[in-house]
Structure formats: C-alpha cells, structure tokens
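Justification of resources, computational component.

The compute hours requested in this renewal are based largely on the per-chain cost of generating structure records like the one below. Each record pairs the submitted sequence with a full structure-token output. That output is archived, and it is also reused by downstream analysis tasks.
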Amino acid sequence: MKRLTVFATLAALLLLPLFAMAATNHATVRIYDPVQVAGTMLRPGRYRVDWTGTGPSVRVVFDHDGRRIMSTPATLKMKHNPYHQALVTDKVNNQRVLAAIEFRHETLRFRKKATASQ
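The structure output for this chain reads:
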C-alpha cells in the first residue's frame, strides 16, 4: 500500500508541469498603436489572446473588455525568445500588420491571407 501511495505521488508530481503548460494557452498583450490582424484593425488597448490547438496550426482569439473582437488561424512554434513578450509587425500598404506575437517560450505567427470572423 505504501508503494502505491509513493508511486501515485511521484506520478502526480511529474505530470503537474505538463498540466500547467497545457493551461497557459492565453496571454494578455498590450497594443500601443493601431495594427491590423487578418483584415481586422485592432485599436490600442489590452487584449486577451487565447489559442487552441496543439500546433503547429492553432486558432487565435482576440478579446477586448470581455468581448470577442476577432478569430484567426496562426502557426504556433515552440521557440525560446530572449524577452517576455514582443509584437512583430510588418508595413503593408502603409499600414501596420501584426506578423507575430513572440512570448518567452513560443511564437504565434499569423497568416497573411487569413480572413477574420467576428
């Protein structure tokens, strides 16, 4: 009985980081200047960004003040970045377009020809 308890405790301790990693598929990002994502213009403000899927193809949802603003496909790449969070933008037709959001351990890269759904 003691072996079973020790085994169950060790298994729980080893699996806990996996569950913790699975639960972090969201982040809060701050946008300081208007930026376009998949055809939708995001105004400056704080956005909750959630992504679903195990990668590399994921679905990303942007919420602002508890309201869904848009949803778009993206590519998730597990990659160590030297900073906590960074927005990567491109200039297309004189407009800023969000190309990627880089977090400490992963990067969400947005497709250029995606369509937004609201």
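Residues 16-21, 114-118 have pLDDT under 50 and may be disordered. The first strand starts at residue 26 and ends at 31.
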